[in-house]
Amino acid sequence: MILHNEIQEFNHKNRAAHEFHFQHLAELLRQKGIDIQSIIDKIKAFQIAIPSWALGTGGTRFGRFPGGGEPRSLEEKIEDVGLLNQLNRSSNSISLHIPWDIPRDPAALKGLLQTHGLTIDSVNSNTFQDQPDQPLSYKFGSLCHTEAAVRRQAIDHNIACIEHGKALDAKVLTVWLADGSNFPGQQHFRRAWQRTADSLASIYQAMPDDWTMLIEYKPYEPHFYSMVIPDWGTSFSFCQHLGKNAQVLVDLGHHLPNTNIEQIVARLLHFGRLGGFHFNGSMYGDDDLTTGSIKPYQFFLIFNELVDAMSDPTVTNPPLAWMIDASHNTKDPLEDLLQSVQNILSTYAKALLVDRTLLGAYQENNDSLAAEELLRDIFATDTRALVAEAARQSGGAMEPIAVYRGLSIREKLIEKRGRKSVATGL
Ligand SMILES: [Mn+2]
Questions:
Q1: C-beta of residue 396 within 8 angstroms of C-beta of residue 86
Q2: Cα dist from 182 to 140, 178, 224, 312, 391, whole Å
C-alpha cells in the first residue's frame, strides 16, 4: 500500500497550480450562484466499482500483450483495487466474476476487504464459455438453451454465484447472456425468450429479498444474427416479468453506433428500472475503451440525464450501481482505470453544474437554441479542479496517475508478482 504521506507530498508539490485553477473555477461558479462545496461533496460521495477482470490486460481475439505484475489471485485483485482507491478515493468496491473469483476463505477475504476499505459491488455469472469441469456445453446457449438440462446447469451456476456473493455480503447479481444465433432460422425467437424468462425466474426466486438482479443487453457479439437480449426493451420485458428486484443494466458499449443512449437512460429512470451502469468508451461497438475517450459530449449528455433524475424527488428509481467495464490492450490497466475514474468524475461534476430550473424553462418555451447553449456552456467548462479538490479533501491524490507513475507502482508490482504474471479470469 502507498503511504498516506507519499500522496500528500505529491499533492503539496501541485498545490500552487491547483489553487490557481480551482480559484478561477470557484469564482466562475460563484458568479452563477453555485455552492461549490456541495458539488465537491457529491463528487466525494460518488463511488465507481472496479471489476476484477479489468485489473489485467485484456486483449483481442488476435492477441494479448500483458505488461507484467498482474494480480494472480482474488486477494491480489483486492489489493489492486485498494491501491486505486487509495489514490482516487472513488473506487471503494470490486465486482467479482465467477468461476474465477470464487471466495475460498470468505472470512479472510472479508478481513482483507476491510483492511482496504472496500466492499463487494456485484457478482457476475459466466455462461458464455465452457469450463473444463462442466458436463454440458453452452455452445448453443445457456438460459435459453433448447435442452432443459443445459438450462438447469446455467440456472444452478447463477444460484451458486448468489451463494458466493452472500458469503461476502454482496447484494447484486449481474446477468449478461451471450445467448443468440448466427443464422436466420437457427433459433425460434419467441420460444427462446420464454425459456430465458423461465430460467431467469428460477434464479430470481433463489435470490434473497434484499438482492437486485441486473440484466444487461447487447445488440451483437458473440452472435451476429440475433441476441436473445439485444436491447433495453428486451431487458425491460424480463424485469417486468420477474419483479421489482430486477433492473436493467446499461453498458455504454452495448449499443449500435449513434444510438441515443441518453434517451434510453431517461426512459429507464422514468420507469424506475435503471439498476446499473457500465462505463467504457466506444467507437464502433463493445470496444471497451477508456471511459470518455471517444465521445465526451455524448457521455456528458448521458450524465446530464442521470443527474437530472437523481436530483428529481418524483423519480422513484433506486440508487444505481456504477461500474467500469473496460479492457486494456495498450495501456497499463491500473492507469487506464484511474484515467476512466477521473473522466467519469469530471463529467459527473459537469452534469451537477447544469441549471435545471433554467433548462426546464427553455424546454417549456421550446427555445432549442438557449437549451442547447446552456448544455454546451457547461460541457466546455473544465471541472478537473473540482475533482482534484474532492480527492484532496478525501485524502486522495489530486493527480492519481502522476502519483502512480512517480512512485513506480507498476515496477514494484512486477518485482513482487513477476514480469510474466497474467491475471486470472476474464
Ligand atoms: Mn458490461
A1: yes
A2: 10, 12, 5, 43, 47
Query: 3-class SS at 216?
Result: strand
Cα separation, 371 vs 304, in Å, equals 13
Contact assessment for residue 382 and residue 398, using Cβ atoms and an 8 Å cutoff: no
Contacting residues for 18 by C-beta, under 8 A, at least 6 apart = 11, 385, 388, 389, 392, 398
* Pair 206, 162: CB distance under 8 Å: yes
The model's pTM is: 0.97
| Distance from C-alpha of 101 to C-alpha of 122, rounded to nearest angstrom | 12
pLDDT digits (tens, 9 = 90+) for 195-206: 999 999 999 999
Give all strands (DSSP E) within 188-301, no chain letters: 212-216, 226-227, 246-251, 274-279
Dist. CA 11 → ligand 1 center (Å): 34
* pLDDT digit string, tens, across residues 152-188: 999 999 999 999 999 999 999 999 999 999 999 999 9
CA distances 347 to 21, 86, 263, Å, are: 17, 21, 17
What is the whole-number distance in angstroms between the Cα of residue 288 and the centre of ligand 1? 9
Say if CB 304 and CB 348 are below 8 A apart. Answer: no
- Residue 325 Cα to ligand 1 middle (Å): 5
